Amino acid sequence: MGPMCEEGPGGGGMHGGRPCCKRAGGAGRGALVEPAALAALLNKAGHGYDLRREIREITGGELEVDAGGLYRVLRRMEEEGFVTSVWAESDSAPQRRDYALTAEGRDLAEDWVAHLRERERLSGVLADALSSALKAETAHGEEAVDE
Amino acid sequence: MGPMCEEGPGGGGMHGGRPCCKRAGGAGRGALVEPAALAALLNKAGHGYDLRREIREITGGELEVDAGGLYRVLRRMEEEGFVTSVWAESDSAPQRRDYALTAEGRDLAEDWVAHLRERERLSGVLADALSSALKAETAHGEEAVDE
DNA sequence: GACGGATAGATGTAGCACGCATATAGTGCG
DNA sequence: CGCACTATATGCGTGCTACATCTATCCGTC
User: What span, in angstroms and rounded, lies between the C-alpha atoms of B31 and A20?
Assistant: First the structure.
């Protein structure tokens, strides 16, 4: 996986057997590849392998998408009309396919902004609920700190 | 589905054919049921059907988890030692199973806080990248607004 | 007393997203 | 030639979710 499960703040992973990361594995963080690809395409159209670097850059190295997954997403978005692609006509280098966003793709990106903001907010709400509940429990349950 | 895809801010869904919500369907928002269940259990141990209401309350009605999914998650967490359950000994009402958190479950909740904060941050980073790229594009591409 | 609705728990199924491994092919290097 | 890097693509397994369905017990009502 990319960086994120390794650099977990609390160093999660030494209680029951599997940290929550495991549970959140796979699609655990929600759809990220598609919006990341859209962001990369908005910044600079190009071929898949390059978009992957672009994604790494615009997220400050925090999101490293799987190459295979990225190609899959690009092809699917093309089928759906959100991007277009043409085989780059270079003589030497390995064949590469240059992608560009369509108008629908731009609209899709706007939808994603709203959706990601929602996810951001919801994650925060849940994290707050969890941490405040944890705080409350330790306060009156651990040592009876009076209060 | 729960409330969230309906009340989408931008009213996403009128371009290519399917809004990003569709793509994010299923596990799109990442794992939410497990942390929500943990939060509910921290606030007030009880039986599944009740935890579902608790979840609705602590999230301000924003998260409405699927009943079936909640039971599944509870059973699995029990298998893994994060919660325990006993059949409530009531004469009348339908049989219910009372759940309680274990020490490992509390640790798991702590892991989830960190993980959810990470997800929150990452969603924000991506949303920022997308929206700033969108802004930049409309600025110099739409009407050549000078500047 | 039959009937629908709420409570309570559980399972089956389908879909989407992801990570990892693997296959292909050209290019440059030692 | 072996090896690494660029570039694209597919197969496979896992995880999480939503929707439909099934059981069973109450309770109020007609």
Answer: 9
